[in-house]
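Data availability (excerpt). The following record was deposited with the supplementary files.
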Amino acid sequence: MNPIARRALACVAVPAAALAAGCQHQPRVVIRDLPVDAIAEAAPRPAAARPTRTRPEERKPAPAPRRRKPRPRAVVPAAWLHQGVLPRPWRWIVIHHSATDRGSAEIFDRAHRARGWDELGYHFVIDNGNGGRDGKIEVGSRWTKQKWGAHCKTPDNAYNDYGIGVCVVGRYTDRLPSADQLGSLQKLVTYLSLKYDIAATAVIGHRDAPGTATECPGDALHAYIHKALRPRLAAVRRKAGQ
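Predicted structure:
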């Protein structure tokens, strides 16, 4: 018989015997004698709380890594790219004014051929609205062929051989080209400079080429090239790491 049952039987037997003998004292149950530890160990333990598991559909997706937005690429006309033709080793961009009120690539091409030249001497022409839409950039046939120019004669002819000729239609001794023309000039020169690694200091007016005797591209446009166009271009090239 286990100790708990034995003690319980004794507790019942003692009062019965006392009553039979006429004993008036009540029996005492001593709490400290009960096997408290054994009772506690025998008592059922509460079940441990199980960790709740998140269902796959309830899990929050991990935040996607932040990605830098790609820089938008400059959109240029396909004619500027002269695909399929190896580029010349260009070293300068030479800016002219036409010194005429009216003009276009077609008009100048006819005038140059009349002088005995093989074709339009410039690589690009920027129209002024009188002969072509104001600010329109026309691409000459020399550019698509990547052919030397016929616009800036010097003793060694280097500025024709390796200089990109850009003519801005109009007379710019006392005034600047239109805002559309200047915007187109900025866009064109920036593209050419970055594409062919031509430094800002190599963007010149016609009169800056050594050995020339000309007022081209006019005082106002010449000042704009040196005081506005070249500093802006230098800043763009620094930002681009060139």
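Summary of structural features: The radius of gyration is 49 Å.
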